[in-house]
Amino acid sequence: MVNGTCFFSMTCKLLMEKAGISPGKGNYMDKALMLLNNLYSQNSLSKQETVYLLENMTGNVEEKLFEYSDITRKKYFGNRIFMRGLVEFSNICRQDCLYCGIRCSNKNADRYRLSLDEIIECCKTGYQLGYRTFVLQSGEDSWYTLEKLSCLLKSIKHKFPDAAVTLSIGEKTKDEYRTLFYSGADRYLLRHETASKKLYSKLHPSMDYNNRIKCLYNLKEIGYQVGAGFMVGLPGQTGSELAEDLLFLKKLNPHMIGIGPFFPHSRTPLKNESGGSLEDTLKMIALTRLFIPDSLLPATTAIGTLHPKGRELALKAGANVVMPNISPVDTRVKYELYENKICTADRASHCRKCIENRINHAGFEIDMGRGDSPRKEKRAAAPF
Ligand code: SAH
User: Fold this and answer.
1) Phi, psi of 305 (to 5 degrees)
2) Which end of the chain is more exposed for a tag (fewer CB within 10 A), N or C?
3) In angstroms, what is the span from residue 354 Cα to ligand 1's centroid?
């Protein structure tokens, strides 16, 4: 005789098997596992469901999460990992983000600024090493006027027409973003840092959450491939706030998403806080891969700093981009968002080889192409 509960369980098990979902060792009616399965198949969950999943991530659910995120990355991008050459061109910043080592209040920071020619020289080195995306990142340094930046972009695009340029230089007006786009910038990285307005305001007392979010929407409207992202393990950050990050990203639907652990920098007001963990960061990367399956997700330098194999683990957890440094060696250590940053003493050619070996060892292949988002739209001609 078949008893009711048992019959139900058998049906459920059969359904799961049919869907190619292994019920795992534990109880296959586990709610967190069920939510994870829904996320895997539908790439979305409600806020309440996301919080539940985050707060009930037992060992077997976590194992499944990483399995699903790996399958999803493979489905959209195969085995290829995109490479970007990163130029950190100035650590001078007008902002005062509480967590950041280059905040304007850190009088101890050894400030530097590369000339336009020096930035172009970095791109040349990068181009010769095979990079076809240059990520130009800096603090919010007003020495680089709109005119200078436009000139720089035009020059890079003229010299390296088959390369993409990504800017990561903070908040600007929509008109300024538009000018930079039509001067040749293809992509823009601007992490939202945290989707919790309350936490954002605490960490950025003189900045406006609404403006940061508005900037991201402006960038999208203009036609950039846009990158948002957040830090994991920020002081006081809750599971509910991390769920907000995932849901905000789902709504914004950016092309790129940077996720890294928070590090307490000793010259900032957050020096006594504890930092983000490897496990939590990997979980957030994997969940992001499931929420926005076709996103370009870097295995960040920050996660590589947290653990010697951090970047490889991030790739296995769903990341598909790495951004080796092509800045001049003497400036690397000065671009100190957080301390003990890896790869500060290595030449660009060394970084390129080292990361290629690591990627290959982890079972992936490098892709030196531009690596545009699969969602990239054709660029319209300048309207002026
Ligand atoms: N001015 C640019 C670039 C900021 S630096 C901008 O506003 O976008 C790049 C990223 O480093 C930041 O967005 C932040 O998420 C990260 N970062 C800064 N300080 C950090 C710290 N102490 N620990 C971990 N990540 C940090």
Assistant:
1) -80, -30
2) N
3) 24
Instruction: Using most ligand atoms within 8 A of CB, pick from 86, 103, 231 the residue to mutate for ligand 1.
Output: 231
**pLDDT digit string (tens) for 368-383?**
999 999 998 777 777 6
CA distances from 112 to 97, 206, 337 (A): 19, 24, 14
Closest CA to 165 of 378, 367, 370: 370
SS3 136: strand
Answer for the pair 65, 350: CB distance below 8 angstroms, yes or no.
Answer: no
188-199: pLDDT as tens digits: 999 999 999 999
**Separation of CA 371 and ligand 1 centre (Å):** 23
- In sequence order, which ranges of 230-380 are alpha helices (DSSP H)? 239-252, 278-291, 301-306, 310-316, 329-332, 348-361
User: Which residue, by CA, sits nearest to atom 6 of ligand 1?
Assistant: 170
Q: 192 alpha carbon to ligand 1 midpoint, in Å?
A: 10
From first CA to last CA, the distance across the chain in angstroms is 78
To which H or E segment does residue 342 belong?
Answer: none
Find all residues with CB under 8 Å of 346, minimum gap 6, and list them. 325, 329, 354
Supply the pTM of this predicted model: 0.92
Between CA 275 and CA 220 the distance in angstroms is 31
Instruction: Provide the strand spans (E) within the chain.
Output: 80-83, 85-90, 133-138, 164-168, 187-189, 225-232, 256-261, 321-322, 365-367
List domains and CATH numbers for the chain.
24-76 (no CATH), 78-367 (3.20.20.70)
Classify the phi-psi angles of 361: left when phi > 0, otherwise alpha if psi is within -120 to 50, otherwise beta. alpha
276 with 268: CB under 8 angstroms? no
Pocket test for ligand 1, best of 91, 96, 337 (most atoms within 8 A of CB): 337
> From the alpha carbon of 270, which atom of ligand 1 is closest?
22
